[in-house]
Design a protein that fits this description.
Helix content is 75%, strand content 0%. The chain has 234 residues and is mainly α. Helix 5 (67-75) runs parallel beside helix 7 (98-114) and helix 7 (98-114) runs antiparallel to helix 8. The longest helix has 24 residues, at 210-233. The chain starts with a helix and ends with a helix.
Length: 234
């Protein structure tokens, strides 16, 4: 356990360093993953969880390779564990299987909606939005129904909107949704307490300072473009 903790501290530091120095190519530090960027922007426990998963994925690649099967298994459960699904989504991005995940999640969302399981459909579609962002399908992501439910106090809605608008150079809209995202986090007391780790406090600052938030989004955009370019060469 100590090894994992120290490794995660290193990864947090490396990630923050890269976000703050991304304009200097020689000081970028280790490249992590697109799902790490989303987690860092979200902040809190999701970010730290994704950091642990990243470390575990580097140590055991087989855990990432079976993620597609895990996704199908969890979606088939009568009472899906959304935290586990969130974890699987990160693994699928790490393994480059976001396209497969998108198709699986589209079918799961449609099925749940047709069967009147609206909450499940909503949660599945939120995962779909995240995967569409990784794929670079930004317009499709913004068009998802779950992002239109302003009556639901879900920080992911303005977070994903802020990310997409900043990626597409709509800074005014991006700033608006970034503010809404942080207001919702404050409303639900999603702030680091005195007991929280130094790493979590640092991650919190990255999501609550717009300039730092924007840097991470641009880093995410760069990574998405690079992944797309590599695939187009194949």
């Amino acid at each position: 356990m100590a090894t994992v903790v120290f490794a995660s501290i290193y990864v947090v530091g490396a990630y923050i360093s890269r976000a703050r120095k991304m304009s200097k190519e020689e000081h970028q530090g280790p490249r992590l993953t697109r799902s790490m960027s989303i987690a860092v922007l979200h902040g809190g426990q999701l970010a730290l969880q994704r950091l642990f998963e990243y470390h575990e994925a580097r140590a055991d690649k087989s855990a990432v390779e079976i993620a597609e099967c895990e996704l199908k298994t969890h979606l088939a459960e009568q009472h899906p564990d959304y935290k586990k699904l969130q974890s699987v989504i990160g693994k699928l991005e790490m393994s480059g299987k976001e396209a497969q995940a998108v198709e699986i999640l589209k079918k799961a969302t449609a099925k749940a909606r047709n069967e009147g399981r609206n909450h499940e459909a909503y949660e599945y579609e939120m995962l779909l939005v995240e995967m569409l962002i990784y794929k670079g399908d930004f317009k499709e992501a913004l068009g998802c129904e779950c992002l239109r439910h302003a009556e639901i106090s879900d920080a992911r809605r303005p977070l994903f909107k802020a990310i997409v608008h900043i990626i597409e150079c709509n800074k005014n809209e991006g700033t608006k949704y970034w503010r809404e995202f942080n207001n919702l986090k404050e409303e639900f007391h999603c702030l680091p307490s005195i007991k929280e780790s130094m790493e979590e406090c640092q991650l919190h600052k990255l999501s609550t300072n717009f300039n730092e938030f924007e840097k991470v989004v641009h880093m995410l955009k760069k990574d998405i473009i690079e992944v797309q370019a590599k695939r187009n060469k194949k």
